[in-house]
Amino acid sequence: MKDFPNDLHYARYEALKLRRHEHGILEVIMSGEGGNKSALATADERMHRELADIWRDIDTDPHTRVAIIRGEGKGFSGGGNLALVEQMANDFQVRARVWREARDLVYNLVNCSKPVVSAMHGPAVGAGLVAGLLADISIAAKSALIIDGHTRLGVAAGDHAAIVWPLLCGMAKAKYHLLLCEPVSGDEAERIGLVSLTVDDIDLVPKSFELAQRLANGSQSAIRWTKYALNNWLRSAGPTFDTSLALEFLGFGGQDVHEGIHSLRERRAPRFPDGAPF
């Protein structure tokens, strides 16, 4: 294992910790806010941008065959940073910038030629969940709690959900969990096909490295071309994703998101106004 803050390929990354391992395995760790290992990684301005960009750099990294993405501390990832969410609600320029990053996060991951393994434990929410569920092999610990919280915030579920949830677990389950923000446990996620595999918490990291090594030791052209072909299912849903993302960011300019922010800060149920323009 090697940390490489001076590696020119990844020198600009701060919110993501990057470690090289044998067999061409690159470990991507979403660190807790402020470097606090016990805190959940939340998608503040830097983390959100880095999660969008990292997949392009991995794609062109000649030393990496497979990437593992995981969180540290008590969970995989937290939701969006509320300070950033508030900026998006109040500033069109911020909203437009984050929309582009959200689009790039999905498409850069889908188009990354290297296989990606995700290892999710504890809460898995927000931008981190995008990578967790779009990974080529997704592993959830039994402690995992997958939550898409967009409608609880007062915006459409646009980050990644429309492009992949119906394909993975079917439309009925997708609507149930996305409209209601109903959590999905690790065991249930495997049962409905939302993730590839569920393991005991103690086995999560070892299993992710075991599968990554198998991918790294396989025929790179065969694995990458198979991924490319299979991801045409996701590319074909591109217009659906683009619409969902546009509607999500349209919502950041409306009233409901302000009530969503206040209710989260005050730790209470939201009281959204009656009526909707659509």
UniProtKB/TrEMBL annotation:
A Pfam match is ECH_1
Tell me which positions the record assigns to the signal sequence: none
| Lineage top rank: taxon | Bacteria
Q: Fetch the InterPro entries from UniProt.
A: ClpP/crotonase-like_dom_sf (IPR029045), Enoyl-CoA_hyd/isom_CS (IPR018376), Enoyl-CoA_hydra/iso (IPR001753), Enoyl-CoA_hydra_C (IPR014748)
Which terms does the record give in the GO molecular function aspect? catalytic activity
Q: Which PROSITE patterns match?
A: ENOYL_COA_HYDRATASE
- NCBIfam families from the xrefs? PRK07327.1
- The family this protein is said to belong to: Belongs to the enoyl-CoA hydratase/isomerase family.
What is this protein identified as? Answer: Enoyl-CoA hydratase
Q: Which source organism does the UniProt entry give?
A: Mycetohabitans endofungorum
